[in-house]
Every structure is written in structure tokens, then in C-alpha cells.
Amino acid sequence: MSEGKRPLAIVTGASTGIGLELAKKCVEGGYDLVIAADEAEIETAAVELRAPGVMIETVQADLATIEGVDTLLSAIGGRPVDALLANAGRGLGHGFLDQDFGEVRRVVDTNITGTIYLVQKIGQAMRARNAGRILITGSIAGFMPGSFQAVYNGTKAFLNSFSWAIRNELKETEVTVTCLMPGATETEFFERAGMLNTKVGEAKKDDPAMVAKVGYDAMMRGDGDVVAGLKNKIQSAVANVLPAAVTAEMHRGMSKPKDGE
């Protein structure tokens, strides 16, 4: 990749939804972009994002694998990364014992393994330069046991915790780590997770552009975390004080597939 005068941002999971909206915010903020996803729609996203003077490079790779992340890292070459927006994620609905374990493993590898590998590689270079911003997309789902979405919620609980831990490790540097914690958002997530036939799948959801703006602005301020939306702030606050058995039952009501459909 050729050296550019604009700062460089990487956005993963950028083909649709929150990731695409985060990429738009980066373009507005003056960044060149490397955008990545595991689907061909990443090329369509690049067309939508193009603007005069903006360098946009696409990477189609399986970010659930070390090899896929290495493909993304190779595309960056030696150019310094000023902002990493680690947004790639995958969901999976229905009861855990009824899920295909290959799909379970893919959720874990996408949300956790690929994400932390990418954060480590980019974070090491940022620390060496003593400059950079990292935004990790967690979720308010990480605050409660995810009945009928158990593995997904578990991975987001990990990311919420992981973000704060590495932020603390980097507190004596100029590298910031921010965790964006959305609630249910109007994206393709629920269809891909097989959750359209649930209360949360059918309910009104947040605008991904709003969520992305909240996350981007928090990253630029260097905040530790941010919950997008007042309703989600209330829900996360409640989840932090109620017993786990109660929040698990609450989640069951939102995520259990409807009987007979």
C-alpha cells in the first residue's frame, strides 16, 4: 500500500450495518480506509464510500481465521494504522444444544479469536509508535446471560471485558481503546443469526448510523466505553444490578423462537 497523507483507518465487518456506517464516519473524519469483510458485498460498500481524495482498499477474507486476518494485515503493508475499528461479528440464535457446533465455533472464532489477533497485531505497532485509536464493537448483550443466544452473549461479555483490560494496560501510552456497546440494531444480524422469529427480531431497532456516530465520537474522544441509545443505557444499568437468573429469564422472553412458527 502506498504511503498517503491522510491518516489510515481499518474497519472490519464493513460491508453492511454498523461497520459500513463506521466506515462512512471515518471518511467524513478525513481517513483513508481499508475495509474488510468475508463477503463480496464489501466491493459494493467501497463504491458507496468512495469520495474525492479518499483511498479505499477492500479485503475479502474470512476474519474468523488467522489466515484471513493475515490477509488483511498484508494488504496494509507498512503503512501505519491510525485507527482500528474492530467490528466484525457473528450471531447465532436458538437453544445451544440444538445448534450446529461448526456454527458455534464460527461465532467464537469471528467474535473473539480473529478480533483479538487483529487487535494484538495492530496494537503492537500502535504502541511502538505511541499513537493510535482502537474501537471494539462489544454489546449490551454482554451484560446478561443470553438464553437462546448463549454463545453470542458470552463472546460479547468477553469483548466488553477485554476492551477495558487492554485499555488499562495501555494507559501510560497515547493509544486509546474504546468499547462500543450497541443494543438491537437494524442490520442483517437477526436474519443471519436465524432470529427473525423472535420478539427481539420483530421489534423496532436502533438506526445503525446513530450507533456508528456514537461509537466513532467516543473513539475520537478516547472514551473507555459507550452504550448507544437511552433505552440501551437503561437496560444495561438494570442488567448490572439484577441477579443473573432474572436477566436470563428476561433474555429468554426476547430471544426464544415463537412456538409453532
From TrEMBL:
Q: What InterPro entries does UniProt report for this protein, alphabetically?
A: NAD(P)-bd_dom_sf, Sc_DH/Rdtase_CS, SDR_fam
**Gene Ontology molecular-function annotations:** oxidoreductase activity
* Residue stretches spanning the membrane: none
Signal peptide, first to last residue: none
The record's CDD domains line, in alphabetical order, gives: SDR_c
Q: Which GO terms describe its cellular component?
A: membrane
Q: Sorted alphabetically, which keywords does the UniProt record give?
A: Oxidoreductase
Recorded family membership = Belongs to the short-chain dehydrogenases/reductases (SDR) family.
Which protein are we looking at? SDR family NAD(P)-dependent oxidoreductase
Q: What organism is this sequence from?
A: Plastoroseomonas arctica
